[in-house]
Amino acid sequence: MAATDWIKMRVNLWHDPRVSAVCDKTDESEAAVIGGLYWLWATADAHSSTGFMPNLTTKTIDRNTGVKGLGAALADIGWIAIKDNGIQIEKFDDHNGASSKKRAEDAKRKAIARAANGETGDMFPPEPPPGICPQNSGQKAPNEGQEATSVQSSADDSRRSAELDKNENKKKSKPKPSSPSAQKVSAQQKELEGMGVEPQHAADWLKARKAKNLVATTTAFEQAASEAAKLGWTFPEAIAYAAGKGWGGFMAKWVENDGDTGHYGARNSAVQSQPTQSIRKNKAQARHDGLDAAAAEFAANMAAKYGTEPPADAGYVPPSDGQTIDME
């Protein structure tokens, strides 16, 4: 694209306060002033590479644009400089000529490419704040330099902050790969939950197994379920009990040693094992009953031999069959 094919003019140029100032100075409408600006900038783009047009005068500007006093008004607001041998367009190199147009084309092409890739951003460069001249040259209006610089800097900071936030969100949204051990534990807990175990009980029991270097396998789960059946407990009840005790496994005899077989009570037709204390009591009762029987037999033998009452010095006589009595 040749340098003379187009020039840059802001879409909000109509409302620029300096255009209003030129309208007041020339007593012309915005349409007439902007039309005159178009002629001036297009002429400079076509006939100059630096923005300096020799032999051009303010009268020539007025005559060609049809706006009387336009040249002098543009000089007053700082958009042109009147030289001895011509007119200089201020800040021409920043946004006019072949090199500046190439920069503008590159910026537009990159914006379109970003939009095609789904990235956020303006399709076209942002409009400058009120303190910038129509060619986006960055020329500061009188008494507005500090404000214009501050606004532009704030806009740049906002764009950079938005880009940083976008990159940070991408990093956060990317899922972190879990370790093989974490995936394995997760699968084991799901298996336990599938067998009716509460999630917290399953997690605590698996944690206890891991602390004791016990591998959590389906076989181990089935063994625990078999041990639970000996007590008449369900599998979830057994795991809940083991988790509360900090056990890495589950055995019926561990519960019997605790004397806690009635913790949940019988849940099915399985016969419950007696606690160790009850077993000892039954054995003691059997020995007591045996001693009573031996004593009765001894008394009967004495009565048959000596009458109703055995003599005081008769002493102990074993039963007639020679059986000795365990006096434990």
Proportion of residues in β-strands: under 5%
Question: So what's the oligomer here?
Answer: single chain
Biggest sheet character = 3 strands, antiparallel
- What best-fitting shape do the alpha-carbon axes yield? rod-shaped
* Structural class by SSE content: mainly alpha
The level of helicity is 55-70%
Count of distinct structural domains: 2
Task: Spell out the blueprint of helices and strands.
Layout: H1 17-26, H2 30-47, E1 52-54, H3 58-65, H4 70-76, E2 80-83, E3 86-89, H5 92-95, H6 97-116, H7 145-173, H8 180-194, H9 199-211, H10 218-230, H11 235-245, H12 252-258, H13 276-306
Antiparallel strand pairs: 1-3, 2-3
What does this protein structure show overall?
- It is built from 13 helices and three strands.
- With about 325 residues, the chain is mostly helical.
- The protein folds into two domains: about 1-175, no CATH class; about 180-260.
- It is rod-shaped, with a radius of gyration of 52 Å.
Quickly describe the structure.
The chain is built from 13 helices and three strands.
Features:
328 residues, mainly alpha, three-stranded antiparallel beta sheet, 13 helices, disordered C terminus
